[in-house]
Amino acid sequence: MTALKSKLAIVTGGGSGIGFAIAEKFVQQGIRVVIAGRNLERLNAAQQQLGELCHAITCDVSDLSSIPGFVQTVVEQHGAIDILVNNAGTNMKKDFAEVTDEEFQQVILTNLTAVFTMSREVARSMLQQGSGCIINISSMAAQYGIPKVIAYTASKAAIDGMTRAMAVELSPQGIRVNAIAPGFIYSEMTAKALNDDPERKSKVFGRTPMGTMGQPADIGEAACFLASDAAKFITGIVLPVDGGNSIGF
User: Fold this and answer.
1) Tens digit of pLDDT for each residue in 49-81?
2) Which residue ranges does the record assign to the Ketoreductase domain (predicted)?
3) Which residues, in sequence order, are bridge partners of residue 9?
4) Is 125 among the domain residues?
């Protein structure tokens, strides 16, 4: 992993959860990290925890017009971008028949369209240096059907396809593109949701061969691997980090 030192990464949604865990693992490897998100207070708190290699810049990815300026600011303040992790996202749990057009489009905007726009702007910078690594965060929802998350599922299935298409187009020019599909990853919110729904909790663990939930750091480790020279011949994959959930029975 030492080859990652002195590189610059952007992690969207880096102020908390999986995004924070990815940023933390990057910093531990000596990578400079720009964490982006809407909540400046949360970003600043994360930056304080992560230390001098971390920098916080606000960016609402759902405001597509702000993304080119954000990327330009990162390059001007911190130099060439080597790694982009498209982690920022949103979810909505609602019965299929009750989801409005506006609600569906809002999830698609944040989880898919913003990933395209951010990737396009960063790729333009990476193309100038002839190298780079883009990591999209997919989901097990793209692997099989999960009820009441139709918009989220649609967005993540599209992320998988876009990852492959981006890899085919950008890899010949030195930019590797991969995705990580997290399974059930521990957070206070996830734990509470499962504890409040014993049937769902039983189903989750019943089809997870490793019999436990993952930790945010597990996704951070996977991102470090995909961003490193250890993965220099890997592009266009969707890597499940799910304890076997996506292949469980």
Assistant:
1) 999 999 999 999 999 999 999 999 999 999 999
2) 7-183
3) 33, 83
4) yes
pLDDT computed for residue 220 by the predictor: 98
| Total domains, the chain | 1
144 is catalytic: no
Tokens 């395209």, located at residue? 116
Query: At 10, which CATH number?
Result: 3.40.50.720
Asked whether 237 and 172 are in contact (CB, 8 A), the reply is: no
For residue 176, the one-letter residue type is R
Handedness of CA 106, 165, 116, 233 (dihedral sign): positive
Asked whether residue 39 is assigned to any structural domain, the reply reads yes
The residue count for the chain: 249
Are residues 166 and 177 in contact, defined by beta-carbon separation less than 8 angstroms? yes
Residues 6+ apart with CB under 8 A from 27: 33, 50, 51, 53, 54
Which stretch of DSSP H or E encloses residue 150?
Answer: helix 150-170
Given the residues 152, 158, 237, 245, select the one marked as catalytic.
Answer: 152
The boundaries of the domain holding residue 161 are 2-185+215-240
In a domain, residue 204? The reply is no
pLDDT (tens digit per residue) in 210-227: 999 999 999 999 999 999
Please indicate, yes or no, whether the overall pTM of this predicted structure exceeds 0.90.
Answer: yes
Low-confidence ranges of the chain (pLDDT < 70): 1-5, 189
